[in-house]
Amino acid sequence: MTRGEPCIGIVGAGIAGLRAANALLKCKVDARIVIFGDETHRTYNRPGLTKKRYPSSDAPGTTIAEDLKVNGVENKALTWRLDTRVETADLREKVLRLSTGETFAYDALVIASGVRPRTSVEGDNECEFHAHRTLRGLDDAQHIHSELQTSKKVTIAGAGFVACELASLAKEYGCEVVMLETRRHGPFESILGRRIAMALGRWITQNGVTFLTGDSAKELLCDPGASNLESSSDRPLFIEAIGSVPNVEWLRGNGLDLSDGVRVDAYMRVPEREGVFAAGDIARYPDPWTTEDLTRMEFWKNAIDTGDLAGRSVASSLGYDSKTSRIGYFPSIATEVFGLRIQIAGNPKTSDSMEIVRGDLDQLDCGVLVKFLRGEVMVGAAYMDKGARFNSVYIELLKSLKAH
Amino acid sequence: MKIFVDRIKCQNHGLCAISAPANFELDTDGELQYHESFDEEHIDDIEDAIDSCPLQAILLNRDAA
User: Fold this and answer.
1) Residue A224 pLDDT > 60, yes or no?
2) How far apart (Å, rounded) are the C-alpha atoms in residues A87 and A286?
3) d(Cα A187, Cα A371) in Å, to the nearest integer?
4) Using CB atoms, which residue from B11, B18, B29 is nearest to A332?
5) Out of 3.90.1150.10, 3.30.70.20, 3.40.50.10190, 3.30.300.20, which CATH number does the structure's domain B2-61 have?
6) Out of A72-76, A262-266, A393-397, B22-26, which region has the weakest mean confidence (pLDDT)?
7) Residue A123 pLDDT more than 60?
8) Chain B contact present for A389, CB below 8 A
């Protein structure tokens, strides 16, 4: 096979993959770029999947897909291979094996295959009592939205971002909502700690959700009371939102560190193999916030920043002049749960104490601003409010957090 | 160039106000307020705000004077 211009494979059609491609095009890299996606959709706005209700129109799916479309650049150097899985990779020979039976030879590879939902039910989506679902892709969301439009009762396992947004959404659709959190005391406990988690649990309860923790949640994980078997389609919806698993299986056998995603350096380079890069939810990189620690983040802006950087690093590896700099990502996320805006910045996980700067945890809707400290140093901040009474104070806090 | 916020998509999450406080802010009711025009020196902040929006509600109208 004769090859002129280099060929760049990007595995994953999510925002990290798209941004890597955009960065390459911006650097005017003279190469053929191919994006592989296992869904049938081009890049869409994943956070938007659980952000709002869609009217039950004739074709609700189309509405969601249209609403959440992310405009990519049209460029003849870029090819989309959708509905195509990369089954295995030989990173020594630089060849991918595709679900279509074809092979694909690359000169540089960007791994942006993301994560998939963790689930407790193996194989089949149905248990004896429920229709089990998870939410990751656009098709999942389309299914769940149309179910919520008709479902009277929905059970949600988990209390993270997806679970909380889903609960809020299901209530808006008029469903009866039960949330089950077996391991923790409330939402976001692993990030914000027990006191805030419990306050958020109370907030969710005040908004009409049956929020169960510990053993009482465990008992309901699969409802043993629902003994008269209904037909499959009538089974109540049970959505598992209990975390995620990095999609690394296709990379096995190549000597990479796949212990939690794909380990990369501060430029998104996979150290074991030349010409291989990773970005997005799957990339585990040196945490700019702590020394000698690695971090892996599953947020939209992280996927954008690491995707951009991976693209620029590929360009630079091919001899193009591109502005590469070590990852300097500032984690800042927001969600809304029953009208309560929740903003989190920095890395509260690494704190050893917290300090309430404004407000009262028993009245979250009146505004609560919290500072997270490790020793004397602020490492994170969180702000919860129905309005934005303390927003300017929060932004001031973040300025000193960014400067650290 | 001017900033345009799609008010139907915007849910007032406020991440833009963190990225580019010179152009975006949440008022005390939590509603987003913003200035359409910006100084060229703030373009990096504006682009950061556009990327940060979880609803992808912010656009740059490159043709607007």
Assistant:
1) no
2) 28
3) 18
4) B18
5) 3.30.70.20
6) A72-76
7) no
8) yes
